[in-house]
Here is the input.
Amino acid sequence: MLLEQIEQYHSSISGNRAEYLEKFLSIGFPARKDEEYKYTNLKEITEKDYQFTPKIAHTLTQDAIDGLAFGKDEFDKIVFVNGVFNQELSSISLDKAIFKPLAEAFEDISLRTDLDQYFNKIAHQDLAFTNLNLALFTSGFFLKVPKNIIVERPIHLFYLSQNQDENTIYNPRNLMIVEAGAKVEVIEHHYNFDEYFTFTNSITEIFVYENAKADWHKLQNDTEKAYLIDHTFAKQERDSLATVNTFSFGGKLTRNNLDFIHKGENINSFMNGITVIGGEQLVDHHTAVHHNEPNCESYQNYKGVFDGNSKGVFNGKVFVDKIAQKTNAYQQNNNILLSEGAEINTKPQLEIFADDVKCSHGCTVGQLDADALFYLRARGISKKEARALLLYAFANDAMQNIDIEALRTQVSKLLANKLGVDLEVGGLEDE
Here is the structure.
């Protein structure tokens, strides 16, 4: 079992990593008795054995990367294979921005000040998975976008696993600093090419300074041999804009944790999500926005479509400090259940200590609109086609703020494929 493996591994490491692992062991994996994991059972993950050191050798080619990517020329690609940065499969044209694999960044004396200032500064120190990551991480990247620099090409970040002959655990760690007036967009993509399970425990810290803009898109379309526990922490300074879009279509169990921290006025934060799953899949979205300053806005819009015996969770929190007057916070989670076995547990929450605010939250759980379905069928559209088109329209509005056209197209294709819609001919794909 994983916990027993970690206990044994503890004796083989020393220093800070040993301390973090000891802290993890004192906390333990979250169980369903923990309120934050009440509807997400991790036993499927934790009752398996894993190798902690993946096999480095692989047979992936550029064609395999291109098969996952969308567009060859308009994106930079950062590729990690089996936990190791792969220069040959990557394509990086960053001119003035500073990029390094995190392991190399720690060896670079010129980056010591940045790492001391930013690394592990906003990640929650009392979470089991953050401490486990600190003890075990080997992969991940450091990216610093200097003041007023616009990164023209979106960065497509790949974490790939291939050629493993047993279950494997990965602990990637990312640190991104976007200085005043700068702009960058990142697309994060995990994929397992093997028949063995992968368990990825990912931590990302993002710092967005004055008048800067940072967009982070999570494209989750992994196989059902993949588990993902993801924590993303974003700290914003005044007049900044940060977006995290999460598109969850694949993976056996996915847990997305987002934490936005406001440290200035006139901040905008956007969180959007589309979940379309079936079978035995589970996707859990946990979000939190900390409004600590006045005149800031946050928007959360999550859509879910659940079929088979799939399960969804949405737990969104908005905290408004007593000094955070003129806050505008919007939070909405809408879901459709397509089968009797599907399940969604949704809990939007507001915790407000200021009196001059505009905050709203809500959720819906239901089935397809019978009147709309009848309307389409009355115009000669088959029941199956009408059903798929309504589901597509329902989920599609959660992706309207994507600035990257190629990403929007790809997500539309994935969404259409999941729902049986053929975008090219305006009908349905054959079953």
Summary: Residues 371-431 form one domain.
